[in-house]
């Protein structure tokens, strides 16, 4: 599925300064029963966000109206655990277009890139600065500049560059996905398969 | 140039390399289950394309399925709908489908090896992170997301940058009651849950050489819990003996040709790894976890570490202990438990049931414990009956359920209630993994058995030394 193009994103951010946020927290397994990619945002961080009777947990950041924006900032080792792409879908469906952390689990990072959510890995020091800036002013804005591979805290002017491979960057900028690419080289694939016994 | 085992298999599957981008990697065999596939099939439908090589794809129902009364219609309408979707998709695309009640049905990572779908030197993927299990056979096997499931269905390829390589050596002799699960939990406790992120692991050293295929599967299965994409072990005689004659392994001349390739699958003597770590087998004790990620494990006779001694965020550590309602410095032995779960793709094979039975034989299930014993597949279930293990279980007051993922991820009815403690042979102790509010202690089948008969965390060595009254 082709997705939204990503260029420069300027937005306030939602802070979640917890380490090892796993995909079972992002979306618990009991909400994986859909056969379509719809409505996963409602259950993003379900058990941190709601009590078992469905009432919101006031102290959880997504229930605090002073925080909002299209950027989610998480602690180290974000997205570990299960390969469920539903976790990335939930993040997207809720309205986030970018996740910032000092370290991402592999599969989650790949899943994000495959659906048009940009994972931005920063140094632990810069992550700290972001958390501090949001603490000082919840409305503080971050700028994610994909063409220049730069993330900046607008209020302080501090910035850092981030990595992304050229192929994925091009995909994100243009909203292309891997299947488009693979279907285009199907002849090569079929040739390879002919020489590969089952 | 000298190559690692991983290089040999990866490089021979690259269809195309993209400069400063990923490799296009050909996938030999693709396993599909009901939870991560429906949106991928929908993607194919929207593009108006068919599965390119249905004969390389195999589907089973496991994540969502009940472990009782499988002959009856599935009660939960959402689960039933997902199972129906998989069956319809498999039929529409000519994919073999081993649904509920089928004699080859079971957990995707148990039935792959059982039926010879898993072979050395192959690339194997599935929309489930514990696909790393199949690495036990010297295959490159790893979990993928649903977008990638769609890629494999439509083009038999995925696009991934080549991971870095890490070798983990464990040498020496394992102590009494130390199982492959303990070896893996020990390594994860040392490396942390992100210690191998970005790497593909090869396990080497006599501990793995001497391990059974089942044990190797348990170890490779848990590779993802240290953050690795996957883990693998070089194939040897044990591997070839295990797979020979299984339904989907090559036969006759094809077998000979395959053997020629498989025998080249080892890391060359001077092959270089990006990272290498070594552990001494004698340091490993039966393990148990006390927190909310698989890296939070200790030898069972130890106390819960003090917050000041850990590396990583103290706030996260304390939050985790609070969830478990444990205090730093407390011993694990003696802690009361409520549930025992024996099963999952980590420890749901016949060897695991044998280990469990060895402890409970002649004893009785503790009254305060609810035990869910769930075989990984119908074939495992059959072996449990044939070997007389079922009689031992029944006599001790246990009941055997029908195969599936069950309480490993609690998508079906097998949910641990909020606040309760479960000693579980599965792979993840995340908050709520086994049910909202559930508290999980990961351990081996021996530790699970010791807990099941005593009703509390118990060192299995104690029971092994105790005379059992016949
Ligand atoms: S048993 Fe658990 S880890 Fe294994 S495939 Fe099933 S849900 Fe995944």
Structure, described:
The complex is a heterodimer of chains A (198) and B (470). Chain A has 198 residues and is an alpha/beta fold. Chain A is built from 8 helices and 7 strands. In chain A, strands 4-3-2-1-5-6-7 form a 7-stranded mixed beta sheet. In chain A, helix 3 packs across helix 4 (106-115). The longest helix of chain A has 13 residues, at 124-136. The radius of gyration of chain A is 18 Å and the shape is globular. The model of chain A has no long low-confidence stretch (mean pLDDT 95). Chain B is an alpha/beta fold. At the A-B interface, helix 4, helix 6, helix 7 and helix 8 of A face helix 2, helix 3, helix 5, strand 8 and helix 10 of B. The structure holds iron/sulfur cluster. The site of iron/sulfur cluster has 14 residues of chain B, from helix 4 and helix 12. Iron/sulfur cluster (SF4) is lined by residues 62-63, 107-109, 128, 130, 344-345, 405, 408-409, 426-427 of chain B.
Distance between the termini of chain B: 61 Å
Residue stretches of chain A low in confidence (pLDDT < 50, at least 5 long) are none
Low-confidence stretches of chain B: none
**SSE string of chain A:** EHHEHEHEHEEEHHH
- Structure summary, number of beta strands of chain A: 7
The separation of the N and C termini of chain A measures 29 Å
Biggest sheet of chain A, in brief? 7 strands, mixed
User: Which assembly state applies to the chains in this document?
Assistant: heterodimer
Strand order of the largest sheet of chain B: 5-4-3-6-7
The count of DSSP E runs of length 2 or more, i.e. the number of strands of chain B, is 18
Strand order of the largest sheet of chain A: 4-3-2-1-5-6-7
Mean pLDDT of chain A: 95
Give the strand content of chain A. 15-25%
Helix segment tally of chain B: 17
- The portion of residues assigned to helices of chain A is 25-40%
Taking the sheet with the most strands of chain B, its summary is: 5 strands, parallel
Q: What's the total helix number of chain A? A: 8
Subunit structure (chain B): Heterodimer of LeuC and LeuD.
Keywords (chain B): 4Fe-4S, Amino-acid biosynthesis, Branched-chain amino acid biosynthesis, Iron, Iron-sulfur, Leucine biosynthesis, Lyase, Metal-binding
Function (chain B): Catalyzes the isomerization between 2-isopropylmalate and 3-isopropylmalate, via the formation of 2-isopropylmaleate.
Catalytic activity (chain B): (2R,3S)-3-isopropylmalate = (2S)-2-isopropylmalate
């Amino acid at each position: 599925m082709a997705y939204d193009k990503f260029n420069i994103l300027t937005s306030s951010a939602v802070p979640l300064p917890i380490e090892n946020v796993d995909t079972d927290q992002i979306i618990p397994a009991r909400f994986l029963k859909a056969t379509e990619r719809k409505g996963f945002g409602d259950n993003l961080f379900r058990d941190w966000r709601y009590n078992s009777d469905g009432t919101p947990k006031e102290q959880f950041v997504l229930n605090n109206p002073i925080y909002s924006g299209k950027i989610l900032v998480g602690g180290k080792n974000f997205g570990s655990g299960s390969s469920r792409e539903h976790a990335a879908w939930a993040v997207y469906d809720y309205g986030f277009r970018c996740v910032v952390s000092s370290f991402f689990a592999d599969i989650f990072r790949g899943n994000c890139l495959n659906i048009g959510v940009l994972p931005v890995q920063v140094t632990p020091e810069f992550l700290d600065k972001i958390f501090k800036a949001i603490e000082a002013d919840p409305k503080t804005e971050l700028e994610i500049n994909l063409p220049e591979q730069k993330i900046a805290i607008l209020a302080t002017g501090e910035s850092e560059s981030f990595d992304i491979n050229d192929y994925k960057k091009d995909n994100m900028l243009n909203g292309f996905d891997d299947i488009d690419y693979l279907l285009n080289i199907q002849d090569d694939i079929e040739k390879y398969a002919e020489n590969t016994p089952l | 140039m000298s190559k690692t085992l991983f290089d040999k298999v990866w490089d021979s599957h690259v269809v195309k390399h993209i400069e400063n981008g990923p490799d296009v990697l050909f996938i030999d065999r693709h396993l599909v289950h009901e939870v991560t596939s429906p949106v991928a099939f929908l993607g194919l439908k929207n593009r108006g394309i068919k599965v390119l090589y249905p004969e390389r794809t195999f589907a089973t129902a496991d994540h969502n399925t009940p472990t009782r009364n499988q002959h009856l219609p599935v009660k939960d309408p959402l689960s039933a709908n997902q199972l129906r979707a998989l069956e319809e998709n498999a039929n529409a695309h000519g994919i073999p489908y081993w649904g509920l009640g089928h004699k080859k049905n079971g957990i995707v990572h148990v039935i792959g090896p059982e039926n010879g779908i898993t072979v050395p030197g192959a690339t194997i993927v599935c929309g489930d992170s514990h696909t790393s299990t199949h690495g036990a056979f010297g295959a490159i096997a790893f979990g993928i997301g649903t977008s990638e499931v769609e890629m494999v269905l439509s083009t038999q390829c995925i696009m991934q940058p080549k991971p870095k390589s890490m070798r983990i050596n464990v040498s020496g002799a394992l102590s009494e009651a130390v199982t492959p699960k303990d070896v893996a939990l020990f390594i994860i406790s040392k490396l942390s849950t992100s210690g191998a992120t970005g790497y593909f692991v090869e396990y080497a050293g006599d501990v793995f050489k001497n391990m059974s295929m089942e044990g190797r599967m348990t170890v490779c299965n848990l590779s993802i819990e240290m953050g690795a994409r996957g883990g693998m072990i070089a194939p040897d005689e044990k591997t070839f003996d295990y797979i020979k004659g299984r339904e989907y392994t090559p036969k006759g001349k094809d077998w000979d040709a395959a053997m020629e390739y498989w025998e080249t699958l080892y890391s060359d003597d001077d092959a270089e790894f990006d990272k290498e770590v070594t552990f001494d087998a004698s340091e490993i004790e039966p393990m148990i976890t006390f927190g909310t990620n698989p890296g939070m494990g200790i030898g069972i006779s130890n106390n819960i570490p003090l917050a000041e001694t850990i590396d990583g965020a103290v706030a996260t550590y304390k939050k985790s202990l609070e969830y478990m309602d444990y205090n730093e410095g407390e011993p694990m032995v003696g802690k009361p438990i409520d549930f025992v779960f024996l099963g999952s793709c980590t420890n749901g094979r016949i060897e695991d049931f044998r280990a469990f039975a060895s402890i409970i034989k002649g004893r009785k299930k503790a009254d305060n414990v609810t035990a869910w014993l769930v075989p990984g597949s119908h074939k495992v279930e059959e072996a449990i009956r044939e070997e007389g293990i079922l009689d031992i279980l029944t006599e001790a007051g246990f009941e055997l359920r029908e195969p599936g993922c069950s309480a490993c991820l609690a998508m079906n009815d097998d949910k641990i209630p909020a606040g309760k403690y479960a000693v579980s042979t599965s792979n993840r102790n995340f908050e709520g993994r086994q049910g909202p509010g559930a508290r999980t202690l990961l351990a081996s089948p021996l530790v699970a058995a010791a807990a099941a008969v005593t009703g509390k965390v118990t060192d299995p060595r104690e029971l092994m030394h105790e005379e059992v009254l016949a």
